[in-house]
Amino acid sequence: MKDHNRQPTKGCFDATVLSNAPVRHSYYRLQLQLDARGSALFRDVRPGQFAELDLSRLGLPPAAAIDPALRDQTTKNIMLRRPFSFSDVRLISDSPPAISIEILYAVVGPSTVRMTTLKPQDVVSVIGPLGNGFSVPEGKRLAVLIAGGMGSPPLQHLAEYLRVNHAGIRIVVFAGARRLQDFPFVVNTLADGRCVPEEFSRLGEEAFVTTDDGSAGVKGLVTECADAWLTEHAPNPAETVIYACGPEAMLASAAAMADRHGLDCQISMERMMACGIGICQSCAIQVKAPAGQTVYKLCCKDGPVFDAKEVVFLDG
Length: 316
Hints:
Mean pLDDT: 90
Radius of gyration: 20 Å
Number of strands: 18
CATH class of the largest domain: Alpha Beta
Largest sheet: 7 strands, antiparallel
Distance between the termini: 44 Å
Number of helices: 6
Shape: globular
Helix content: 10-25%
Oligomer: single chain
């Protein structure tokens, strides 16, 4: 029997562009104000969920504004919506309820090239919120956030969510990229020479920056830095949880690290999510099942957040 009083958890609605500005070369911050229906749907959104944006009707910027490496790709037609997580979700008015969301995106293909043309007052069709986000297990007192490159947006949202809703949880952030220019946010250098990610440090959290080439912060992989910190501080496993988002090789490393330290670990996976609701079956994730078997779950519907112990990573 259908529950006719049950409120929908996702839907299609319009959002109005508030701003769309470059953070640094090839990285932009898009702010959208959701309409009444979208604001109602997003009242209980969880960090790690995502939305699908319709970008099919957007035109191209002038040729001179397109990276030469992307010009051939921009001729492709945009048929399907594109998924994006949120770096921030904010209640900007309580009466009537109005919510804004912030999306950090990298200009990497025909859809995101077109996104750069969005300007204030433009309207975008959105489906969301979609998927399952991060959870906060009982009894946790320390959250270790590990972000690799463009894996930072949902963790930025998570950091703010924890600060507001779980003030008793200490947050330590590790943000890594191949080089300084690959961070999708501002990196500040302190008087003592340490580098910190502005979007996390402004929340008052302890934060570390790493780069593979040493161009900012600690030289090396972000998981190596996090592993060294965990080894030095030896936090209580019952009170500690790791949250990670980034390239799959980094997530595999984070999962292995969590296992060595006996820590809970939630990871946000990435796949091509064409529909966002489990119809197209294009975003399968292999996960462990009883008796040594494996099954497939859908990144868009069952994830994108998974328990790291469950995931079978592509590299074995």
